[in-house]
Every structure is written in C-alpha cells, then in structure tokens.
Write a structure and sequence with these properties.
about 375 residues; alpha/beta; 9 helices; single chain
C-alpha cells in the first residue's frame, strides 16, 4: 500500500513484463532491500473551546514516541539512476502530499473558500491529512520518506531526458476529460513535425495505448493495479522500453485522478491539467493541489459550451486563485478549436529541449578538445 495516498502497490504491470508476474518495482540493474521496524505510541488529548457564536474549536495535543531500526544492502550498477526499494512500515496513511511545495520550504494553504459552521476539515496540520491513530509528525515523516525516494527517481529521469533533448509533459485530469482523444488528435497533427511517444497510465486494460499506437506513435501501457497514479520509478522503466530517439516529445498520460498525481514528480518538464467544461467550473478549488502543481490548464470540450451553463471566466478565476501563474488555453479535441496554440506550446518546449541538448554537447566537445590539447602539450 502506498503510504502517501493509501493506494495499492506491488501490482503495477508494464507492457513487456511476464504476464504471470506483476511488476513490483524491480529493476534489472540494482537490487536493494530496506527493512524498517517502527514502533510508535501515540497519546492524544483534545481541548475544546466554545465561542460566543456557538462554534466549537478543538486543539488536539498529541504525544508520540517512536523507535525503530533499519538495515539494507544493494549491489549492481545504475541505469537511468533507478534502484529498487521495498518499503515496510505504517501503511494506513491516506494523505494528499505536497512534494514540490515542501521541497521549496513554503507549503501553501488552500483556504480560498468560506468554511461553514459544522463542516469537517481533515487537511489541517503539517501533513495536510488525517489518519486515525497516527500523529501528524509521523505522517509527515512517512510522506517525506516516500516522496524523497520518488523525487530521486524523478531527478534521474529528468537528467536522462535532458541529456537526450526529450521534452516530457505529464497530462493529468479526472476520468473522462478527453485526455486520450486530445493526445490522438495532437499526435496526428504533429506527426510531420516531431517524433512523439506516449507512456499511458491506467489501472487496467491497454485500450488507450492501443488507440495511441493506431496513430503510428510508439506507446507503453503501464497498468497500476490498485494504484491511483504513476510514479517516477514506473516511468523510468517505461523509458527503458520505449528507447526514445534524441529530440523526441514524450507525452505521459497519467491515471485519471485529480488528487494523488499532483504529488508525484515524474521527471517531466511540465504538468498539464486538462479540465473539461462538462465537469464544473469549481474543480480548481475542490482539487487545488493539482492546479497548483500544473503550469498549463487546457479547458477541453469547448465545443459543448453553447449547450452548458459553464462559466469560463469564473473557472479561470478560480484556477488562478490557486495558481496565479497558471496559463490557460481553451481547446476542443473534436473540432480543433485552440489546438494551434497548444501545438505551438509543445513545439516551443521541444525546441528548447533540443537547443539545450546541443549546447551541452558543444560544451562537452570543447572540454574534450581542451583536455586533448593539455595532454598533447605535456607529451
């Protein structure tokens, strides 16, 4: 079970694996085993205060004592910087993690709405989450451990992608937003301009990967089983299978979910959140972490707007309450509305990745020439 969000682990399957065995985050190059034994005793006391308006405010006081030990070993060499970790510990935490925000040291608050008397809110405290019987301090520790490992994989992915001039985007949304249809349309329009490959994430089936492959683009299906998101380790394995050429565009279609994928860096250049106009303009306030983590929001199915009571301006205003820097494009994968701007954004990112790779190669060649000149002078 994932300690960050409570979803199942150990059932991931990447195309090409032996179908008799689920992919359990093993890696052919590095083998590591981590065993943790944690014992925690939590004592909580609550003090309640009744205010004049009748509201009740509770101050929980938790005293936590934990001790444990860990031992592990690893051997082998690293490809793409990935390694294998088997985690054992407290498995019941269901939380919404903020990896990028904690890394920056500035966790954000999402109280952009009026809390009503009698509402229940479990997102208070440093962990921004609640798990019965577990202290906030312990939850933060677990979150940091899990996300720290994921971020190490993501950094390895990002380094490898940069070295090869590959521009990677992580497409995130709720189910039914039109991600796959948008991907298919984008690939068809880009096929003469760029080499495009796709990592396709779903809990089960390869339906979406089959749709992508029908366009002629290579795709790898990652089935997460009970998992509700892709992680950087899964994507690293998919990169190995795809064997992408330099200067490619990599599109990662995450599992349909507006919660947990926000917390997991995959090594991508940008998260792109897709919101369809059939979902309601209040989604950015309901699921703020995702819109805060994204750099671009695609407002999809715009062709349906004449038939809906969807307020585009209000939706954009809500999204920018959460993320003032969020760029927004209104598109329709069915009619093609707005796709020109979307494709221009993709090709601009691809050009930047290619230019950076070429600059690094030129720098490396100059360094080699300098070293050769120094050796020749000594000889």
């Amino acid at each position: 079970m994932c300690n960050v969000c409570g979803c199942g682990q150990g059932e991931t399957r990447i195309e090409g694996d032996d179908p008799a065995h689920a992919h359990e985050h093993d890696h052919p190059h590095v083998h590591g085993h981590v065993h943790e034994h944690v014992h925690e005793h939590v004592h909580e006391h609550a003090h309640e205060h009744v205010h004049a308006d009748g509201t009740v405010h509770s101050h929980p006081h938790a005293h936590s004592h934990s001790h444990g030990h860990a031992h592990g070993h690893s051997h082998g060499h690293v490809d793409h910087g990935h390694h294998h970790d088997a985690l054992h510990g407290a498995e019941a935490a269901h939380e919404h993690a903020h990896d990028q925000l904690h890394a920056e040291g500035a966790p954000h608050e999402h109280h952009h709405y009026q809390e009503r008397q009698g509402d229940l809110h479990y997102g208070l405290g440093p962990a921004h989450a609640h798990a019965p019987g577990m202290s906030q301090a312990r939850m933060v520790q677990i979150e940091q451990d899990i996300l720290g490992r994921n971020n190490a994989y993501a950094a390895a992915n990002r380094k490898w992608l940069a070295e090869h001039g590959i521009f990677a985007v992580n497409l995130v949304s709720s189910p039914g937003s039109g991600k796959t249809t948008l991907l298919v349309k984008s690939i068809e329009l880009l096929k003469d301009q760029a080499r495009v490959a796709v990592v396709e994430g779903d809990q089960q089936t390869s339906f979406d990967a089959d749709r992508i492959r029908a366009t002629g683009a290579p795709a790898i299906q990652v089935n997460t089983g009970k998992g509700c998101h892709l992680d950087a380790h899964m994507v690293g394995h998919a990169l190995e299978r795809l064997a992408l050429p330099d200067d490619s565009l990599l599109m990662i279609e995450n599992v349909g979910n507006l919660v947990c994928p926000a917390a997991f860096d995959l090594g991508e250049a940008h998260k792109v959140v897709i919101l369809s106009v059939t979902e309601g303009e209040d989604k950015p306030l309901k699921y703020p972490d995702m819109f805060h983590a994204a750099d671009l929001m695609l407002l999809n199915k715009a062709d349906l707007l004449p038939h809906l009571a969807f307020d585009v301006d209000r939706c954009v205003e809500y999204a920018r309450r959460v993320n003032p820097k969020l760029r927004v494009m209104r598109v329709s994968a069915t009619t093609g509305e707005g796709l020109e701007a979307w494709l221009a954004w993709l090709t601009a990112g691809l050009d930047q990745a290619r230019t950076a790779r070429e600059a690094n190669v030129a720098l490396l060649k100059r360094r080699i020439a300098e070293l050769e000149a120094q050796l020749a002078a000594k000889g």
